[in-house]
Amino acid sequence: MLKRFHLNIDPVGLSFSCLTYVFLLYAYYVLIGVVIIPLMNESIYGCLNGVLLTILIFLCIISHLKASLSNPGYVSILNNKYNDKPQISQEGYTTCSKCEIYRTADSHHCGICRKCIKKRHHHCPWINNCIGELNQKYFIQFNFYTSILCIYGIIFLMTSLIIYPDEIQTSNRISPSARVYHSVFVIVECIVFGLFVFAIMCEQITSITSSCVGQKSNHSETRKSCFDNLGENLKLKYFQFCQVFGQKNPILWLFPFDFRSNSNFKFQGNNFFSV
């Protein structure tokens, strides 16, 4: 079994990951340090918004770290060389000329990670990692919580600009004009970043519900409906979400933690294809 956590040493990916944290922490600073503390520190409204914002930022960072540092589903190279299992080529598996291993049809090679990954969707520079079978859950959660945070930030900052247009405590060094500049910049950031992550989240959900992941969606047979009956089709989609999120309870899908009873997935019972 491969290690569950890793870090890709890719300058581009590391730069984009750091930029993600800069965006998140800057928005947190503006919302807390520029708006809530100077204007609402003595109100229940300010305290509740501060707690909610902190929880959202925490969930965003944890889900991003989990997606970045988790093994996305690397196909093990142990006991999995061309010469070790020559009969596998007759059992519906494909081969990777770069890794020189056998793999299932839904596995694909990543040139950046330099490994084959089970149910690989794409390599995302924003998390400096591939999106695969074992970390797609965290990637969707990061996009989900970031979308909520962006919507929250837009509504909260626009409301504060309307209610407190020129108010600022004299003990605070931030002037009203600086608060407006910071607020407008974060609103623009939330709009651009929010639309981006929301579109990615919808695409990820679509890939699950349509029974295809990444390159598999290019095959015409995966576009056929698995069941004609609507009820059975909904059950299938629910089962697919359970496979991705590792739990039958949808409430647990919201938490960026591993609830799978067995994280060592096997490919159709072949131990040398473990990830």
TrEMBL record:
Its EC number is 2.3.1.225. It comes from Brachionus calyciflorus. Residues 92-209 form the Palmitoyltransferase DHHC domain. It is found in: Membrane. It holds the Pfam family DHHC. Belongs to the DHHC palmitoyltransferase family. It is a multi-pass membrane protein. The chain crosses the membrane at residues 12-37, 43-62, 142-164, 184-202. It catalyses: L-cysteinyl-[protein] + hexadecanoyl-CoA = S-hexadecanoyl-L-cysteinyl-[protein] + CoA. It comes from the Eukaryota. This is Palmitoyltransferase. GO terms for molecular function: protein-cysteine S-palmitoyltransferase activity. Its main location: membrane. Keywords: Acyltransferase, Membrane, Transferase, Transmembrane, Transmembrane helix. The DHHC domain is required for palmitoyltransferase activity. GO terms for cellular component: membrane.
